[in-house]
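An example makes the point: we let one protein speak, the chain in one-letter code, the fold tokenised, and here it is:
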Amino acid sequence: MRELTQQFKLLNTSIWRCIGRFLLIILCSFGLPISHPVAKADNMLEYQVKAAFIYNFIAFTQWPENTDPVINLCLYGVDYFGQEIDKLQNRAVGTQSIKVMHINSINQLQQCQVIFFSKSTDNALASIVNSLQNRPILTLADTPNAISRGIIINMNLINEKIVFEINLANARKSGLDISSKLLQLATKVHQ
């Protein structure tokens, strides 16, 4: 009987140690910042796909009498692309090549043929886009309701898919001709 009691105490102590370790792990987990590599990978994949979309937006847009051998693709605001957008540097689009530029001043935006407005510019987006109105600049964003604030092409993440809408009226006012192939792929075309 004594032997059974000692075994029970050992087992009981062992169980309490396991429970104690488990609780310690749980408590430590709440106190430490948790890294989500899957979330970071998803975000990186999202912007990798968006960079590919941007390339195609450029490829399926025609600028009025644009004979410049370089298309300036400007990023305005916080760069969420990481190195993904830089992969477009010097890529050919017909006879032109793309030059990726990171812009921090509104005054520099007029040297761009394409501008991607980061989500970080959301509050000032309408006034900035308004200042570029009627210029042959393809404006892009991935911000909710950006189309209503003057952006020509806006991308959205819906059900883990990148979709886009086009404001054709603004494109035409800017003197840009967007391919019918691109218009057919848009989830919505605003006239």
About this structure: Residues 10-41 have pLDDT under 50 and may be disordered.
